[in-house]
Design a protein that fits this description.
InterPro entries: Epimerase_deHydtase, Lipid_A_modif_metabolic_enz, NAD(P)-bd_dom_sf. Residues 5-221 form the NAD-dependent epimerase/dehydratase domain. The chain has 350 residues and is an alpha/beta fold. It has a domain at 4-178 and 206-232 and 284-301: Rossmann fold (3-Layer(aba) Sandwich). The chain has helices spanning 13-23, 57-64, 79-82, 85-105, 144-162, 184-188, 209-221, 238-244, 254-266, 274-282, 289-293, 303-314, 331-342, and strands spanning 4-8, 30-35, 47-50, 69-72, 111-117, 167-173, 175-177, 194-197, 203-204, 206-208, 226-230, 236-237, 249-252. The model is unreliable at 318-326 and 341-350 (pLDDT under 50).
């Protein structure tokens, strides 16, 4: 069992939730949480140390505190959260390189758990019904968090070759959803009008935020497993998701979908990239046999139940303020009027 656990990314929602979850395990002597800013939420009995994983300071923290288990939750999912795409990529890729180099140098480190994403499989019309961990993307992610995660996993495999004594588990999560977490995907399904590509109804799979935290805790407590898919049972389609969220949706040509999401970004409502647009078009399915057989984990929420828990927290928030579409309006015009109705007011109007 681990004695001293370091959690990278502890000031983010899931990082803080994981620190609180780990704090309940009395067999763990010490928990160290690191991030570039102090957490605004509770982190249980974890000790916060302000550090940037891009900095050599992270190596001194790991070596100086005899850390034996590192949990990497420091990959930023959206450009806005990282201060822009350039900073996001630097944190995700350069930060991971520094963190793994620190693990390689520290003799005390014997276990690494990495929170990754099923986005590494990409989304394309040539995808299998279900991706197993041994499959690769039919079309590699072109940009954003998914592309960064492909690079992160490459560096993790490099560490496993250089330090075969370190037990490594990489958890590839389906889209994490729930009543408290905010992601590009939850933003998308919180829009007043949800664009869905005409001719497509993507198959979607989710994992509840509580199950995400529990799966990482499980991985910390057992030997390394390599890559493991984590998702709730079943699927729902994009149109079902819109209906469950209580949002009207509009079917638009795929090229127009990008225009609508660009419009939503302009109004500050979402922060979405091309990888999410591909996912909303083609969807993705994960085979979770290894999750049950090797990780020994059974999610408490199915895909539908996880989404319904999210939908209950957001349903009806903006519908009473939606404008009526005028005759002759295009989908983009109707969406723009709806987004203007719910976008944050300028400071002088608040």
């Amino acid at each position: 069992m681990p004695q001293t656990v370091l959690v990278a990314g502890v000031s983010r929602h899931l990082g803080g939730a994981f620190a609180r979850r780990l704090s309940r395990d009395e067999s763990i002597d010490r928990i160290i949480g690191v991030d570039v800013v102090p957490p605004r939420h509770g982190i249980g009995r974890a000790e916060f140390m302000r550090a940037d994983i891009r900095s050599p300071l992270i190596s001194r923290i790991i070596s100086g505190n005899d850390v034996d288990t590192v949990v990497h939750m420091g990959v930023i999912a959206t450009p806005r959260a990282g201060g822009g795409r350039a900073t996001q990529k630097e944190v995700n890729v350069i930060g991971t390189m520094q963190l793994l180099a620190a693990c390689q140098r520290a003799d005390s480190v014997t276990k690494l758990v990495v929170k990754s994403t099923a986005g590494v499989y990409g989304s394309s019309p040539r995808d299998p019904a279900m991706f197993t961990e041994d499959m690769s993307a039919k079309q590699m992610p072109r940009s954003g968090w998914a592309r960064d995660s492909v690079e992160v996993e490459g560096y993790v495999r490099g560490l496993s070759r250089r330090r075969p004594d370190i037990e490594i588990t990489t958890l590839r999560f389906a889209n994490v959803i729930g009543p408290r977490i905010r992601t590009a995907f939850t933003d998308h399904f919180s829009l007043p009008v949800i664009p869905i590509p005409l001719g497509y109804d993507a198959r979607l799979q989710f994992v509840h935020e509580d199950d995400c935290v529990d799966a990482i805790a499980r991985a910390v407590s057992i030997p390394g497993l390599g890559s493991v898919n984590v998702a709730g049972d079943g699927i729902i389609t994009a149109s079902q998701a819109a209906n469950l969220a209580g949002r009207p949706f509009v079917l638009v040509p795929r090229a127009t979908t990008g225009a609508l999401t660009d419009l939503a970004k302009k109004f500050g409502l979402i922060d979405i990239g091309s990888d999410q647009l591909d996912f909303m078009t083609f969807g993705r399915g994960l085979d979770t046999t290894r999750m049950r057989a090797d990780l020994g984990f059974e999610p408490a929420y199915t895909t539908r139940a996880a989404y319904e828990d999210y939908a209950r927290a957001t349903k009806g928030r903006v519908l009473d303020r939606l404008p009526f579409a005028q005759p002759g309006w295009s989908a983009v015009q109707a969406a723009e009027a709806a987004m203007r109705a719910v976008s944050p007011a300028p400071e002088s109007e608040k």
